């Protein structure tokens, strides 16, 4: 006898809920240092956890008699790190078609991907999976917990954002921007027709051959404020256009990729012309536009490229020049989050590149001269704010999700290990039972 799809989902949900409930006794974690990410580090502090939330945190917290106690006298606890721009769990990060707003990463996520296990091993408790940069309008992302038997159990927020790129794959920026503008102009014509007539809309293609699109012929300039979305029957909007409609009416934000500093101006054009709330994902040379970024009103934190240090050649002197983009942006007052570098492991071999680890990226910022507290915020508070989840994650505070990464020592010291990880109060990683890690260490010992 076959169960219907709804029944299967209900059974899985009950199993997952039961496992979480089993882990939700009062938990007290005492550590040498607790880094809350919003206040000074707490020495010899205690975190009380109950029902998946932080109940109390401080140096004078009373531990209930019935609490399960974990002690780490020399350990350091950080909020679970947040990977805010990632392709984790996706076999392919980009579609070949340039404009696919209806695409969702949920259709391509593999819950058993090694990338998610690597996240936990690095203390990452939240991952924003979103289409890659080689696109125009690449589709919708999702914020996930990096643990769960099925994708449905991993979802924290979906859809999270629409991926847009103002940087072309092939290098022709004029054609790329023209195509991007044409997409929104055709959307405008589609919505304008629906708002004016309330009848069946003619099938308008995403692009029209010729020198001008149909929407350009109808209206050379676009005034989105004249579109009364309340007058548009949603069932009349073409299904493939619905995510774009959510984008322009403010229900869905965007992540806009700018490979070069010169592309930032185009990103602002898209945001202003089409009323889009957006986070900028910047290339390595973003420091060249730091004044432009700093002068932009109401610009939230941006996402930096994984390359935090790069060199180019001075054409006048012929000498190599070193650039520290993060430090220059910090000095200009621009808030940002960092991301790790994509480095897929093969045949059980872990990534050797330090930039593949999010904690290493934050440690690099400290090495480059940023205050330690600011470096912590680039992998906790700032990405939480970018994702619109700072009311739940990103810091260790009363009432927030008990997403915790317990390090054996200084989190920015390469000699430290992530010992345990908790997601919403449930232990999801324990170094003592990490068989892949044990096998790696066994091979290293054999080599020596």
Task: Spell out the blueprint of helices and strands.
Layout lengths: L4 H18 L4 E8 L7 E9 L2 E6 L9 E12 L1 E6 L27 H8 L2 E6 L7 E4 L1 E3 L6 H4 E3 L4 E4 L7 H25 L16 H5 L23 H7 L5 E5 L5 H10 L4 E5 L7 H5 L7 E2 L6 E4 L6 E4 L1 H7 L4 E2 L20 H10 L4 H6 L3 H6 L17 E4 L10 E6 L2 E5 L4 H13 L1
Parallel strand pairs: 1-4, 5-6, 10-11, 11-12, 13-16
Antiparallel strand pairs: 1-2, 2-3, 4-17, 6-8, 7-10, 8-9, 14-15, 17-18, 18-19
Detailed description of the structure:
The structure is a single chain. This protein is an alpha/beta fold. It has two domains: 15-80 and 397-447, Roll (Urease, subunit C, domain 1); 82-386, Alpha-Beta Barrel (TIM Barrel), CATH 3.20.20. Helices cover 28% and strands 22% of the residues. The chain contains 13 helices and 19 strands. It has helices at residues 5-22, 114-121, 151-154, 173-197, 214-218, 242-248, 264-273, 290-294, 325-331, 358-367, 372-377, 381-386, 435-447, and strands at residues 27-34, 42-50, 53-58, 68-79, 81-86, 124-129, 137-140, 142-144, 155-157, 162-165, 254-258, 278-282, 302-303, 310-313, 320-323, 336-337, 404-407, 418-423, 426-430. The chain has a seven-stranded mixed sheet with strand order 3-2-1-4-17-18-19, with no helix packed on it. A four-stranded mixed sheet has the order 5-6-8-9. Helix 7 (264-273) links the parallel strand 11 (254-258) and strand 12 (278-282). The protein starts with a helix and ends with a helix. Mean pLDDT is 86; it is low at 1-23, 198-202 and 204-220.
């Amino acid at each position: 006898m076959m169960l219907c799809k709804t029944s299967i989902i209900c059974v899985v949900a009950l199993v997952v809920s039961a496992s979480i409930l089993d882990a939700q006794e009062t938990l007290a974690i005492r550590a040498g240092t607790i880094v809350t990410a919003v206040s000074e580090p707490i020495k010899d502090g205690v975190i009380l956890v109950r029902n998946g939330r932080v109940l109390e945190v401080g140096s004078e917290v009373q531990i209930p008699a019935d609490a399960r106690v974990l002690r780490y006298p020399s350990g350091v606890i950080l909020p679970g790190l947040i990977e805010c721009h990632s392709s984790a769990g996706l076999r392919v990060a980009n579609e070949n078609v340039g404009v696919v707003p209806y695409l969702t990463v949920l259709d391509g996520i593999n819950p058993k991907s090694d990338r998610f296990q690597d996240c936990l091993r690095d203390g990452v408790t939240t991952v924003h999976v979103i289409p890659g940069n080689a696109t125009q309008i690449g589709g919708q992302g999702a914020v996930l917990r990096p643990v769960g038997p099925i994708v449905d159990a991993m979802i924290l927020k979906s859809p999270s954002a629409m991926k847009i790129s103002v940087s072309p794959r092939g290098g022709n920026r004029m054609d790329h921007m023209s195509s991007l503008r044409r997409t929104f102009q055709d959307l405008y014509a589609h919505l304008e027709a629906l708002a004016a007539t309330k009848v069946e809309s003619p099938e308008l293609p995403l692009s029209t051959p010729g020198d001008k699109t149909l929407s350009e012929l109808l209206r050379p300039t676009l005034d989105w404020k004249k579109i009364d979305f309340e007058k548009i029957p949603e069932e009349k909007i073409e299904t493939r256009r619905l995510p774009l409609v959510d984008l322009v009416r403010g229900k869905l934000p965007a992540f806009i990729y700018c490979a070069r500093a010169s592309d930032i101006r185009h990103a602002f054009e898209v945001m202003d012309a089409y009323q889009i709330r957006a986070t900028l994902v910047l290339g390595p040379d973003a420091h060249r536009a730091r004044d432009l970024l700093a002068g932009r009103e109401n610009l939230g934190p941006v996402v930096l490229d994984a390359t935090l240090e790069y060199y180019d050649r001075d054409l006048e002197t012929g000498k190599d020049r070193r650039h520290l983009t993060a430090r220059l942006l910090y000095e200009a007052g621009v808030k940002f989050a960092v991301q790790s570098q994509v480095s897929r492991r093969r045949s059980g071999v872990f990534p050797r590149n330090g930039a593949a680890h999010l904690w290493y990226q934050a440690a690099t910022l400290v090495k480059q001269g940023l205050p330690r507290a600011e470096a912590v915020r680039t992998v906790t508070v700032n990405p939480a704010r970018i994702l619109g989840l700072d009311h739940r994650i990103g810091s260790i505070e009363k009432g927030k999700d008990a997403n915790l990464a317990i390090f054996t020592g200084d989190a920015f010291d390469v000699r430290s290990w992530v010992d345990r990880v908790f997601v919403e109060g449930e232990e999801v990683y324990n170094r003592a039972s990490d068989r892949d890690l044990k096998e790696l260490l066994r091979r290293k010992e054999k080599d020596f």
